[in-house]
Amino acid sequence: MPFKHLHLETENQVGYLLLGAGTRFNKLSVTTIRELKRALGQMEQDGTINTIVISGYPGESFAVGADIGQMLHFSPTDALRFAQLGQSLFDQIESCSKPVIGALNGITMGGGCDLAMACDIRIAVDTLQIAHPGARIGIITGFCGTRKLPRIVGKNAAREIFMTSEPYTASEALRMGLVDRVHPEKDFWPMVKQFAARIAAHPAETLSTAKKVLNASEDIDLKSGCALEAALNGTLWNTRSTSNPTP
User: Fold this and answer.
1) Please, where in the chain does CATH 1.10.12 lie?
2) Which residues are within 8 A (CB) of 246 and not within 5 positions of it... i.e. 6 or more apart?
């Protein structure tokens, strides 16, 4: 089944999941979220792909959040189901066995910010504008942003971001830890592709295991985490030594 709001590409063991509906601003409608889930599932099952990149490149926005025009017609039950749908996408990204890079090519607002936070690594263009503007229109995110943003930037910065509803620049986002890398617009996409290819060149099982252990660090105590790391490292070493016994 073809995608209406996405374009998929593969190069150098990297799967590119590009949002784009022929408009300037990529909105996270019900259809778009469902397509993202389907496309992500396809890429996770594709043995030729080791790393996944989500972006709105070459458009002006990464994602500007939920489709407010669509949401105006929601009943309270519809709003709940929409929040659950978005949360299921972000959980799918976080539990994906492959690294997922968010390439923030432009405006990143509301649910778009939540989408970015679900990614393992966030790379931003220097013209980035990122915000959570829900308070301005009388809503909060239903996509777990109030839970995840404090974990990434700290509680005080998260309060400021939510309560002011103001956009932040790429340099401000980098300072807060909301993004991990920033590149000038002219270099942005080549640098994203180069970075993604570097990661994708590593063994898929190692990348998957590293992601699993790193994500678990927030949910389990230090002693248990160290034991998990040792066990998984032993499993990886056994696999590696069987296929390539020479260090």
Assistant:
1) 204-243
2) none
In single-letter form, the type of residue at position 185 comes to E
Whether 54 and 141 have beta carbons less than 8 Å apart is answered as no
Asked if residue 118 lies in contact with residue 67, where contact means CB atoms within 8 angstroms, the answer is no
Which tokens in the block code for residue 23? 């408009």
pLDDT (tens, 9 = 90+) of the chain, 247 residues, equals: 789 999 999 999 999 999 985 667 899 999 999 999 999 999 999 999 999 999 999 999 999 988 777 877 888 899 889 889 999 999 999 999 999 999 999 999 999 999 999 999 999 999 999 999 877 877 777 787 888 899 999 999 999 999 999 999 999 999 999 999 999 999 999 999 999 999 999 999 999 989 988 888 777 777 777 877 887 777 777 665 444 544 4
CB 11 within 8 A of CB 25: no
CATH number of 204-243: 1.10.12
Q: How many helices (H) and strands (E) does the chain have?
A: 10, 10
